[in-house]
Amino acid sequence: MNKKTKPAVPAIQIERHILLIRGEKVMLDADLATLYEVETRVLVQAVKRNIERFPADFMFQLSKQEFDHLRSQTVTSSWGGRRYPPYAFTEQGVAMLSSALRSKRAVQVNVEIMRAFVRLRRMLEGNKALAKKLDELEQKYDEQFRIVFDAIRQLMTQPDPKQKRPIGFIWNDDNKKE
Questions:
Q1: Looking at the 3D structure of the chain, how many domains does it have?
Q2: How far apart are CA 95 and CA 156, in angstroms?
Q3: Quick one: pLDDT band at residue 3, thresholds 50, 70, 90?
Q4: pTM value?
Q5: Domain coverage including residue 97
Q6: Sheet arrangement for strand 24-28
Q7: Which residues are within 8 A (CB) of 105 and not within 5 positions of it... i.e. 6 or more apart?
Q8: pLDDT digits (tens, 9 = 90+) for 165-176
Q9: Cβ pair 78, 118 in contact under 8 A
């Protein structure tokens, strides 16, 4: 029997660092460095020493525009005086990091990160299956349930990150008193 061991990093801590950039689920170098308990520059140096292990579908560097957008999304900047945009690692890139860093901690953390990616994939598949069942039910029942089905679909859809609601008071010329 295997003894259940405490994970190196709690799943929730990993999952909140998985971002969707360029249509890929990725983790940023600074977040990974924190999880691995190394400095970001150490992680990046290890990657550059083993660059042949990190093709474009494993890792990419954010553009300045992506980096600026990402920074604007965080209320407090944890980036410090960073001079270059971060590297983003796909699931395969994260898996390759344990071989580049060569530490016991990196291996343990990678196991937990791989589990987090698998959980996310299962959740997405679950949503697809639920959507299919909903379609079938909707075809089976009449109009009286359409409102319920629409509400459930709305809850299932992720908000579009491109559509941001303005925060604060917006003043326009229509507000002028004459």
A1: 1
A2: 30
A3: low
A4: 0.59
A5: 11-122
A6: 19-21, 24-28, 87-89, 59-61
A7: 8, 36, 37
A8: 656 655 666 555
A9: no
